[in-house]
# Entry
Amino acid sequence: MTNSFKALSALLSYPTQELKEAVGDIREILYGEALAPRWAIDQVKKLLNEIDTLDLYELQERYVFLFDRTRSLSLHLFEHVHGESRDRGQAMVDLRALYEQAGLDPDMRELPDYLPMFLEYLSTRPVEEARGLLAEPLTVIAALKERLARRKTPYAAVLRVLEAIAGGAPSPKELDALRKAPDDDPNNFEALDALWEDSPVTFGPESDIGAAARNTGEARS
# Structure
């Protein structure tokens, strides 16, 4: 098990008192396992310090403002690839099956393409396999990092670490498509309503977390 993925999953999850109490452990895990370069991990310090020192309700309000009220910052990976199209449903089924084959019991209250849940799954895989799987949604991760960085939020550093762990580079064509997609302002309620009614942009037929690891290893042959 690679605990860095669990630590990063926790940082991208809704803040709780348990998360505040785990800041020291998270810091120790990230630096101890060193899956990403130190320069990348160093950038997470600001978020860790804020989780440690800010009021819990302030942390929760900020999280909701960013990730729940802003569709372009959704932590549901397939949202950025399929939107609400029919293809997303099958991709969800395949990904949930992948989790179950790994012995995980996915939280049925959350969709399987939720990035923190995906990171929990990666924590159960050998490191090189986990890096390869993380590289599949690298374009979405890179786009989220850019959008968070524009908002000057320390959450961008977590996506930067994931980018560094995956290695390689996102597809320029797919990243350009995501850059052209609407990046909504959570303060503009009229624009948000219109955006949720728009048809989603789809791209990247080879995405879907490696087609759910090539349909769970072609049903394990």
User: Anything to note?
Assistant: The chain has a mean pLDDT of 83. The longest helix spans residues 86-101.
